[in-house]
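Feature request, filed as a ticket because there's no other form

It would be nice if the structure record came with a short human-readable summary line next to the tokens. Right now we just get the raw output. Example of a typical job, pasted below so the devs can see what we mean:
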Amino acid sequence: MFFFDIEKTYRSLKVSLNIIVQILPILFLVIFLLWVSNYFLKPKTVLKYLGKESGVKGWLLSITMGIVNHDSIYTWYPLLKKLRNHGMRTCLLAVFLYNRGVKIPLPPIMIYYFGIVFVVVLTVYMIIASVIEGKLIETIDHILCMERVNSV
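Raw output as currently delivered:
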């Protein structure tokens, strides 16, 4: 393209550079989150709040973090993998991902169009559905682990 139309080549490079500049803050955020996770998230800490013995506080933490999270899910994948490797329960991971559908900026708009009762009922149902999904995922994961153990 450079040999045929230098002006278009220049414009496309300028657009590409603009996109890279827009993406850089997200990349730096991911690197920062990974650094923070390496520094603070020791396996013992993860097991305490999100492990097998986390109980209700693990469920509430996963639900809350899923709701208040506004980043792109792609920025969370490395951190979630690290948490999973340190002992985060599969069900809590599923609950976190499911509750990303409950967003804080949406209710005012939804209330305007659908009414407060609808929004409250929908939000409660989504949270309940996330817990059910989490339990299902954990059950499936447990069955698959048992099958792997029995096949060895």
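Something like this underneath would help us a lot:
The mean pLDDT is 85.
Residues 12 and 18 are 10 Å apart (CA to CA).
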